[in-house]
Amino acid sequence: MSHPRNVIYAQAGGVTAVINASAAGVIEMVKRHPEKFGKVYAAINGIVGVLEERLTDASRFSEDTLDRLKTQPGAAFQACRFDLDSIDENPGQYQRVLEVFRTYDIGYFFYNGGNGSMVTAQKVADYCSAHGHPVTCIGVAKTIDNDLALSHCSPGFGSAAKYIATSLLEATMDLFSMHNTSTKFFALEAMGRNVGWLTIAGGLIKTAMPDVPLLILPAERPFERNKFLERVQHLIDSKGYCVCIVSEGLMDPDGHYISIENVEHTHNNDYTQLGGVAHTLSGLVANTFNCKTHSAVPDYLQRSASHQVSQTDWEMAYRAGKAAVQAALDGQHGVLPVIEVIDTQPLVWRYKNVDLFEVADLEKCVPDEFLTKDGMDITPAAIDYLLPLIKGERPIQYRNGLPDIYPMHFDLVEQQLPKYKAVK
Question: Which of 328, 346, 347, 349 is nearest to 338 (CA)?
């Protein structure tokens, strides 16, 4: 029987409020199976930490450290936005990863990220295996965008949806109380790039305020200026005010973003940073109707609100880590555990494994049956889908009136290889 081989876990891409619960799930599950796994290392800054040999020995974490991980927002091991170049363009990156994996006898690579991260993980594993060092690669799902295809939902989405719906409900109460003599229109901007899952989550406020004058503008439907203004006017005339939640990736009928914050240029591609659409719409309404308006961009707040974590979402994230390790125990490779629903009343679910490359090429958009014909509201089917995902609350500890959270610092292992700087 072969000896137990070591594990590397890493975090990639935008964070969620529950990504560290997945980390704890991986670490705890690995430690329960010493017959299969050796040490479990966590890379600092994702694949960059692998390249630069910045690793911490998570096998030595205390129970207190693991408990803190389970409630810590952000990426405790500092995630990265760094995709490996193609092998032809930069073989040195892959050679370096192989060198690190050989040095630390890494036989298992668990990468906690979105679709793009899954491709990176698989490429690394394939390269290592092709060069005589087999590595089992398993993805650990996460994204607040909920665009992970083949999965009922994405770990991280439920908590962000809970935050968005809560914030919009509270802001709507504010607007309702002031609209007679002040603000008539308020717009909240939700993340999600080209999908509108977080945007439609704002529609959950209808469960508390059934007659709320609400406009929902998801990225899946083009923005038609005249129809939007007509709807705003109708709601202000009939209700006295209008509240709007809009996707950051909202486009006009010609496929152009309504608002772009910035374009980051790299030698491989351009990364478009979206933002500002709520402010744009707020200005449009103010100028058209000569009324006072406001807008807000939650930005990082919606993905880091540890005080608004959904219990359902937390359990999904924690079990995502465990499911990834179980897949390795079962001899799986190149797979991503995704959520499969068994029953809906109440929600009962489990993890099943799908091919990494298969899911990486797909994007899950809000389906037509979740949106009204005019594309500016959601249907009861959408509410039925969303409600179970925001159910339950996670108790957190407070210190001096604030959540008891702070950056976690980990001792790094002593480096054994020559220095290496990951550069894009």
Answer: 349
Q: Is 321 annotated in some ligand binding site? A: no
d(CA 132, CA 317): 33
Task: Check residue 18 and report its DSSP letter.
Answer: T
115 among the known binding-site residues?
yes
Q: Taking a C-beta distance cutoff of 8 angstroms, is the pair 104, 55 a contact?
A: yes
As a whole number, mean pLDDT of residues 356-364 equals 84
Give the catalytic positions in this structure. Answer: 145
Q: Give the global pTM.
A: 0.94
Q: How far apart are CA 325 and CA 26, in angstroms?
A: 6
Q: Are residues 197 and 326 in the same domain?
A: no
Give the domain extent around 22: 5-143+308-362+395-403
Query: Structurally, how many domains does the chain consist of?
Result: 2
Dist CA 314 CA 30 (whole Å) = 19
Has 192 been labeled as part of a binding site?
A: yes
Write out the DSSP string of 253-301: TTS-BS-EEEEEE-SS-EEEEE--HHHHHHHHHHHHHT--EEEE--TTH
